[in-house]
């Protein structure tokens, strides 16, 4: 039997104790991991749907999945004193909106119709009310953008002017893409000036403005006209000139639009200089909507 040195004995003892400690450590570690593994599948962390806050719901009418990754926001036409539902319903029912939430946003006069009732408002008041209308629109856009969603903005007729004002005041990057239908960048002065006085008019052949000599009989209609004047007075070829690129904007207009007039050569040239996508055809104020709406949604947003 060979003699084992004391040094070797001590070394063996040291390794024995060390091994015990390591075994104990790994036993605790493995046990702990096993408990975590047991708990994870049985009790997964619940995923909270994105949804829509009540504050935002109070500002909109909507259809579709509340957690959809894409949101199509309409700046309401008119002006009107009630929040519309027809356009949102139409888009929801006739287009592929599986992953799209479609929204219409309140404006100042739909939130509080009394501002247009009773007495004639001034042009300055109309401008102020239009400014108020931009805020809920921007609030809704920013809310969904902050959630990481893709946001598209649609503006038709009066909504076209609201959308242009949104871009001018809040920036082209407020939303991802825009579709404007039957608007004007620089509507004729005689038209908005007449509306500011409660006098209505139209464009003969989409070119020549003809304005009534006397104000309309209904105070609400006169005030609605002043809201239109409060935006129509703006020269958007100047206000939007600071925007370097409008390639995320599709603009549709009718060559014989009797309500707001056809875009002038100067307005078209401005949009072209900013790389906007322009669609046009013969027809009045409604024809571009019915004739080009499907194409516009497809080209602007990829909605079929």
From TrEMBL:
<keyword id="KW-0472">Membrane</keyword>
<feature type="transmembrane region" description="Helical">
    <location>
        <begin position="12"/>
        <end position="30"/>
    </location>
</feature>
<protein>
    <recommendedName>
        <fullName>AB hydrolase-1 domain-containing protein</fullName>
    </recommendedName>
</protein>
<keyword id="KW-1133">Transmembrane helix</keyword>
<keyword id="KW-0812">Transmembrane</keyword>
């Amino acid at each position: 039997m060979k003699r084992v040195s004391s040094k070797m004995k001590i070394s063996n003892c040291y390794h024995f104790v060390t091994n015990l400690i390591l075994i104990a450590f790994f036993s605790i570690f493995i046990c702990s991991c096993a408990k975590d593994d047991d708990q994870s599948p049985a009790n997964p962390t619940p995923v909270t749907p994105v949804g829509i806050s009540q504050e935002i719901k109070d500002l909109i009418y909507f259809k579709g999945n509340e957690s959809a990754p894409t949101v199509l926001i309409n700046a309401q036409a008119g002006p009107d004193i009630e929040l519309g539902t027809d356009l949102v319903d139409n888009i929801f029912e006739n287009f592929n909106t599986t992953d799209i939430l479609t929204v219409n946003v309140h404006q100042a006069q739909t939130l509080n119709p009394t501002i247009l009732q009773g007495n004639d408002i001034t042009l300055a008041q109309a401008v102020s009310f239009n400014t108020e209308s931009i805020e809920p629109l921007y609030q809704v856009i920013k809310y969904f953008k902050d959630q990481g969603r893709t946001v598209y903005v649609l503006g038709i007729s009066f909504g076209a002017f609201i959308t242009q004002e949104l871009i001018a005041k809040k920036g082209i990057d407020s939303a991802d893409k825009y579709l404007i239908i039957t608007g004007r960048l620089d509507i004729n002065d005689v038209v908005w000036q007449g509306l500011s006085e409660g006098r209505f008019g139209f464009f003969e052949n989409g070119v020549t403005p003809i304005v009534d000599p006397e104000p309309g009989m209904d105070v609400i209609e006169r005030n609605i006209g002043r809201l239109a004047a409060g935006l129509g007075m703006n020269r958007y070829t100047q206000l939007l000139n600071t925007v370097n690129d409008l390639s995320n904007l599709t603009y549709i207009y009718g060559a014989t639009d009797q309500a707001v007039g056809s875009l002038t050569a100067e307005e078209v040239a401005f949009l072209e200089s900013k790389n906007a996508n322009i669609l046009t055809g013969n027809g009045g104020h409604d024809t571009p909507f019915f004739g080009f709406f499907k194409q516009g949604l497809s080209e602007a947003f990829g909605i079929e």
